[in-house]
TrEMBL record:
<keyword id="KW-0067">ATP-binding</keyword>
<feature type="region of interest" description="Disordered">
    <location>
        <begin position="284"/>
        <end position="326"/>
    </location>
</feature>
<dbReference type="InterPro" id="IPR003593">
    <property type="entry name" value="AAA+_ATPase"/>
</dbReference>
<protein>
    <submittedName>
        <fullName>ABC-type antimicrobial peptide transport system, ATPase component</fullName>
    </submittedName>
</protein>
<dbReference type="InterPro" id="IPR015854">
    <property type="entry name" value="ABC_transpr_LolD-like"/>
</dbReference>
<dbReference type="InterPro" id="IPR027417">
    <property type="entry name" value="P-loop_NTPase"/>
</dbReference>
<feature type="domain" description="ABC transporter">
    <location>
        <begin position="5"/>
        <end position="246"/>
    </location>
</feature>
<dbReference type="GO" id="GO:0098796">
    <property type="term" value="C:membrane protein complex"/>
</dbReference>
<dbReference type="GO" id="GO:0016887">
    <property type="term" value="F:ATP hydrolysis activity"/>
</dbReference>
<dbReference type="GO" id="GO:0005524">
    <property type="term" value="F:ATP binding"/>
</dbReference>
<keyword id="KW-0547">Nucleotide-binding</keyword>
<keyword id="KW-0813">Transport</keyword>
<dbReference type="InterPro" id="IPR017871">
    <property type="entry name" value="ABC_transporter-like_CS"/>
</dbReference>
<dbReference type="InterPro" id="IPR017911">
    <property type="entry name" value="MacB-like_ATP-bd"/>
</dbReference>
<dbReference type="InterPro" id="IPR007159">
    <property type="entry name" value="SpoVT-AbrB_dom"/>
</dbReference>
<dbReference type="Pfam" id="PF00005">
    <property type="entry name" value="ABC_tran"/>
</dbReference>
<dbReference type="GO" id="GO:0003677">
    <property type="term" value="F:DNA binding"/>
</dbReference>
């Protein structure tokens, strides 16, 4: 089966004044139709940028990104507008970005269909189905001020499904919710994914996301670093309540992989390693003998918890001048 989403060596560069910021650099990822995955990573790792590219809000700078057979790099502005309007549903951290406060829950859901020219009968039927799916049919006539934060986010989820998208994207949808409501919202994503067969990608910092999704992909420095996959088959020793995950390090198209910082620090990896094949067909990565890590002024090797060195203003100006002169 052909993947629903294919990203190969995806690059996104933002230009700020005379500076260029590489937000995504060489990201590789495939997603199957109907899959529910979570994207995690530190702030600034490229998660939201990647989501914006998939949703057609940003154009990629280079590489390949295909969604449901569409090459997003080759779409015209008109085609990209149609893609966003007809194929993608967005859910934001702030539910206000999805909702209009002076409309009721039902009216908010019906608005995108009204704009799209859906008939009144179809509009009412689909709005009712969505409100029932998110458990808010009894609150259909309530405005936002009459709903809790969790209920508002449920309405926002229903609004994102009003255009019957094939791809649902959530950017920190539980970021402003308490832990109990976050769990309920993630469980709702899981039910909607099963009910409507939607390909769903959730960017989040919520550590509980692994319980609700099939796969968790970690992005580090603009690249896919590792992924955690729910194991399909249980052993006889495991109960139904136990869920087992397998974690993998991702290898990109150029054969590159990212070794987690804590692992590099533990075994003393610096900038050179040796790679050898083991007798059982595995690969051994070892630090080069004598290639010690750099030692700081305090006489010890820096660790991943150390603060970065402070750059004085004069040094920063010299650095910028040298960069501009390149």
């Amino acid at each position: 089966m052909k993947p629903f989403i294919v990203c190969e060596n995806l690059v996104k560069i933002y230009k700020v004044a005379e500076l260029e910021v590489i937000a995504v650099q060489g990201l590789d990822l495939t997603v199957q139709k109907g899959e529910l995955i979570g994207i995690v990573g530190a702030s600034g790792s490229g998660k939201s940028t990647f989501l914006n590219v998939l949703g057609g809000l940003d154009r990629p700078s280079a590489g390949k990104v295909e969604v449901n057979g569409r090459n997003l790099l080759k779409l015209s502005d008109t085609q990209l507008d149609a893609y966003r309007r007809n194929e993608v549903g967005f859910i934001w951290q702030q539910s206000a970005r999805n909702l209009i406060p002076y409309l009721t829950a039902k009216e908010n859901i019906e608005l995108p269909m009204t704009i799209a020219g859906v008939s009144p009968r179809q509009k009412r039927a689909w709005a009712q189905e969505l409100l029932e799916a998110v458990g808010l049919w009894e609150h259909r006539q309530h405005k936002l001020a009459q709903l809790s934060g969790g209920q508002q986010q449920r309405v926002a989820i229903a609004v994102s499904l009003a255009n019957k998208p094939s791809l649902l994207l959530g950017d920190e949808p539980t970021g402003e919710l308490d832990s109990a409501t976050s769990d309920d919202t993630l469980a709702l994503f899981q039910r909607l994914n099963e009910q409507f067969g939607l390909t769903t990608i959730i960017v989040t910092h919520d550590p509980q996301v692994s319980k609700a999704v099939d796969r968790v992909v970690t992005i580090r420095d603009g690249r896919t670093s590792s992924e955690t996959v729910r194991r399909a088959n249980r052993t006889e020793e495991q109960t139904d309540a136990e869920t087992v995950f397998d974690e993998y390090v991702m290898v990109d198209g150029a054969g590159r992989l990212q070794i987690p910082p804590e692992m590099r620090e533990k075994i003393g990896l610096s900038d050179r390693v040796t790679i050898t094949m083991s007798e059982d067909g595995g690969v051994l990565v070892k630090p080069v003998a004598g290639n010690d890590k750099k030692v700081g002024r305090d006489g010890r090797s820096p660790t991943i918890t150390d603060e970065p060195p402070k750059v004085q203003p004069k040094g920063l100006r010299r650095l910028l001048d040298r960069w501009k002169a390149r």
